[in-house]
Amino acid sequence: MRNAKVWKAALAAGTLLLATACGGATGDGGGGPTAQRTLGKGEGRLDLIAWAGYAEDGSNDPGVDWVHPFERSTGCKVNTKIAGTSDEMVSLMRTGQYDTVSASGDATLRLIAAKDVAPVNTDLVPHYRDVFSGLKMRPFNSKDGQMYGIPHGRGANLLMYRTDQVSPAPDSWKAVFDDAARHAGKVTAYDSPIYIADAALYLMKSRPDLGIKDPYALDTRQLGAAVALLKKQRRSIGEYWSDYQKEVTAFKSGDSVVGTAWQVIANTAAADKAPVKAVLPKEGATGWSDTWMVSARAAHPNCAYKWLDWIVSPKVNAQVAEYFGEAPANAEACRETTDPHHCAVYHADDESYYRRVHFWTTPTRQCLDGRTDTTCTDYAQWTRAWTEIKG
Hints:
CATH class of the largest domain: Alpha Beta
Radius of gyration: 21 Å
Number of domains: 2
CATH topology of the largest domain: D-Maltodextrin-Binding Protein, domain 2
CATH superfamily of the largest domain: Periplasmic binding protein-like II
Number of strands: 15
Order of helices and strands: HEHEHEHEEEEEEHHEHEHEEHHEHHEH
Largest sheet: 8 strands, mixed
Oligomer: single chain
Structural class: alpha/beta
Strand content: 15-25%
């Protein structure tokens, strides 16, 4: 999904009782899975679903391997399924064949609502204590005061532009919405229904009359306004992107001059001598924070918990963050990065920065902004709207 270094690998691979130490989470008889209470010996196997770059075993780069050390340490043999989209992750988890998944916020609530994942007992994950407070008990990784996973990392969806083509330097999402026609055919946007939230975020500030309080909580009227804005933008879009290696290439060639990007894309493009800059606009931004979740039907729950603690341990979390291009979740990881400036570049410990970031959250009919007098639009409606927008 996100790392240019491993995107080709992603495409190639795209293809009972709770209280026991060896048992996974099961239904509690009252309507949902419950958290594992104790941790026992590993079952010898772990089946996981991950974004490319999250479970590296040296096959893509011999110098990048945190899977084999985990296997040697725990005796849990890792079998990884690389997923290319959040929708794919949701579908795979619903088969019950996997123990854990590195879900983004546009998948987590769907998995929780379907009871495909269990609450997580953070007491069984010692390194959870060092996770940045800004990643704990968030709307996309918890429910009713209970964590449903262990945070992995985070990043913002930034506004990137070519400094030789876009002037004056933009500081607002207006550049890709109301002013998109200035660069018709060279505007780019992320290819996913969750991108509707980017339009909603802009409308929060530019159209206060719409009453949008949360870009993921849109009633029918608010969704209609976001869709109208995106249809207008569509006339200026050169391409929608999901493979960010292609976005780097587009910005280098000048086929794209302004649009949504991640910090790692800006870094990669700049390293390749492209005249680009990425900014967090004055309206704020959407963003992503991935969460390792445990299947409600995990066949290897003890190995899953061992993985959760391993992947968020300082040294490993630092390795993943640098290889993938994101801010680590564990505060202690910043002492372990090979680049001493990594955490500063990705604003890892800057909570004031991330308070301006609205992390991907699955839209639901129950309004996430606290409204109880109306029904909001859900992800299925957003998906249909996105198909309509793209035409």
